Automatic annotation (TrEMBL):
Its EC number is 2.5.1.39. It is a multi-pass membrane protein. InterPro entries: HB_polyprenyltransferase-like, Prenyltransferase, UbiA_prenyltransferase, UbiA_prenylTrfase_CS, UbiA_sf. This is 4-hydroxybenzoate polyprenyltransferase, mitochondrial. Belongs to the UbiA prenyltransferase family. Its cofactor is Mg(2+). GO terms for biological process: terpenoid biosynthetic process; ubiquinone biosynthetic process. Pathway: Cofactor biosynthesis; ubiquinone biosynthesis; Secondary metabolite biosynthesis; terpenoid biosynthesis. GO terms for molecular function: 4-hydroxybenzoate polyprenyltransferase activity. PROSITE patterns: UBIA. Keywords: Isoprene biosynthesis, Membrane, Mitochondrion, Mitochondrion inner membrane, Transferase, Transmembrane, Transmembrane helix, Ubiquinone biosynthesis.
Length: 423
């Protein structure tokens, strides 16, 4: 029983006794509920939802009773508990799982000392690498017919392989830089709290040194391309470092990410010897392809941002998903229209034939429309599924259309049809 001490002003008054009893029992009920929520989840002591985190819960409303004695209102405890629970957790309270070394997959075969660095570059989650690679592939396939002479398949394949290597390296460098900037934010987001820097497996100093190694490796890949690629490629490093800062100052960091991840839409042209400064059709095609990929990046990363939307509010991180939480699918539809429109404009500037437009624009419209219609933005797992597989649905369709157009031109299929028409 919670002891009651009634002031002299309450003595002899049944109404005073009743009020005091209701207040004490109500206060006890809310306190018990808070304790029950904490104990039933049994989080680790270092967790942000540990009992120690509730030590800061203080009564929000107090009023004087009796001889000036302050009695806390139960409403204050309820509001404080609600605020703490919502700001510390995404949805209902769950027990945070401690870190466990990977038992399956590629990382499980690596030495334990290397695993944190492999996790740092997301080696076990290659979807981001694919998203970085696809714009490079698109520009290579679109530029190949514009090269003089037309780039042979072997040259296209070799350039594509270099781009894939560069995407793997530079995506890893970007992830490391991002985690360095976010090292004080990641521990407060459920999805990122076990990242190597956030959990202390990699120190910031070691991460900086590792970033330098990755950038040197990326430079080694870049010098394998024609010299002109250096002038086009190096400026992209400024964007790589800017994106993590954008999350702190604007609700549209996805636009900055789009500028960064889409840079490969330009690189395929100089890689195959197409001079953008002297070739107006090629420059127009590259600019339209770049804009198309920026729209695509914002689109798929807006879906990705919905996985962290509640944690982002608590951590003070801005995203387009927060800015347009109530009309996300409308925005996604607009981005899809922009992407397809610029994709068509790129093909027109490059003088592409019907295979290009059917393969790229039609497949993009079908896959993006299906994704926007089907994705459940309230489900973390469903957002992740569409983010992961949408990469191949949309990117694969566009690449197939461009590849088919390149082969048709390389094999002279359009020329044969022109001759048949003349005859």
């Amino acid at each position: 029983m919670l002891p009651l001490r009634l002031g002299s002003s309450f003595r002899g008054s049944s109404l005073g006794i009743s009020r005091a009893w209701n207040q004490a029992t109500s206060k006890r009920r809310w306190t018990s509920q808070i304790r029950l929520l904490v104990v039933s989840n049994q989080p680790s002591p270092s967790s942000p939802t540990s009992p120690a985190a509730f030590a800061s819960i203080q009564p929000l409303h107090t009023r004087k009773h009796g001889h000036g004695r302050k009695v806390s209102s139960p409403l204050g405890y309820r509001l404080a508990a609600t605020s703490s629970l919502s700001s510390l957790h995404n949805g209902p309270l769950e027990s945070p799982q401690p870190y466990a070394p990977p038992q399956t997959g590629l990382l499980s075969y690596l030495p334990s000392a290397i695993i944190p660095y492999a996790e740092l570059i997301r080696l076990d989650k290659p979807t981001g690498t694919y998203y970085l690679f696809f714009p490079c592939l698109f520009s290579t396939l679109l530029a190949a017919p514009l090269a003089i002479p037309m780039a042979p398949p072997l040259a296209v394949f070799g350039t594509t392989a270099l781009f894939l290597t560069g995407a793997l390296v530079m995506r890893g460098a970007g992830c490391t830089i991002n985690d360095l900037w976010d090292r004080n934010l990641d521990p407060h987001v459920s999805r990122t709290r076990l990242r190597p820097i956030a959990r202390g497996a990699v120190t910031p100093r070691a991460a900086i040194m590792f970033t330098g190694f990755q950038l040197l490796t990326g430079l080694a890949v870049l010098v394998q391309f024609p010299t002109a690629c250096l002038f086009y490629g190096i400026p992209s490093l400024l964007l790589v470092a800017t994106y993590p800062l954008a999350k702190r100052v604007t609700y549209y960091p996805q636009f900055v990410l789009g500028l960064t991840f889409s840079w490969g839409a330009i690189m395929g042209f100089p890689a195959l010897g197409v001079d953008l400064l002297s070739n107006t059709p090629a420059l127009t095609a590259a600019a339209c392809l770049y804009a198309s990929n920026v729209a695509w990046t914002v689109l798929y990363d807006m879906i990705y941002a919905h996985m962290d939307i509640r944690d982002d509010v608590a951590a003070g991180i801005k995203s387009i998903a927060l800015a347009h939480e109530t009309n996300t699918k409308t925005v996604l539809s607009g981005l899809a229209a922009i992407q397809i429109g610029f994709l068509a404009a790129a093909g027109m500037a490059a003088g592409a034939g019907p295979i290009y437009f059917i393969g790229t624009c039609c497949s993009a419209a079908a896959t993006l429309g299906t994704m926007i219609w089907k994705v459940n933005l309230k489900s973390v797992s469903n957002c992740w599924w569409w983010f992961k597989h949408g990469c191949w649905f949309t990117g694969g369709g566009i690449a197939a259309g461009m590849g088919g157009e390149y082969l048709a031109q390389y094999l002279g299929m359009y020329e044969e049809k022109k001759k048949e028409t003349v005859i």
